[in-house]
Amino acid sequence: MFAFEISDNAYSDIGTLTFTKDDILTLEKYISVNKKGFFEIDKKQAKADGVNNSLLNGQEDYLKHINSLIKTGELTANESLEIESNNTLALRSGHWWSCGGGMNTSVSYHWWGYSRYACDCETQRMSADFNSCASVGSGITLVAAYFGAVPAIPPGLSSAYFWLLSSRLDANNHGRGVYVEMTWLLVFNITPQ
Question: Between 120-131 and 136-147, two packed helices, what is the crossing angle to 10 degrees?
Fold first, then answer.
């Protein structure tokens, strides 16, 4: 898993901190879906339990993004925090029969971020694309193309991040494809299929 240092205030009051996916997952007990089908976070209880305010604010911003997609009808959330896409257009889903490895899936949304499977060919394409990013702007555009819209650009992000993402995709591919989990803070975990 990869976590990067945060260096400015793009997510409200985030200071110089390092968050991992495990840090984000600890917030699950404070997150719920209300009767109208929108995500809520119990910041009051989380603060009382000593959860970092910066982490809470970032999670709250991401949930606002997810709620905006629920409001437009693109997503639906249930009480178990599962999110279903109502979009009939799949993002590069299916299997490329001429390609080795597992299948491609469209993006799955989660309260903590995104996930998807990519076959060998799709993984190679993603790796090459991220490796060629010369700027953060082009990298964010690629993240959006492969995983969906990013509600805000995490501070401290550099082109080195996209090179690292590319190298982890390549290292875990093994000709079979990968499973990618990406949090709202763009912390990623990549495992072979």
Answer: 160
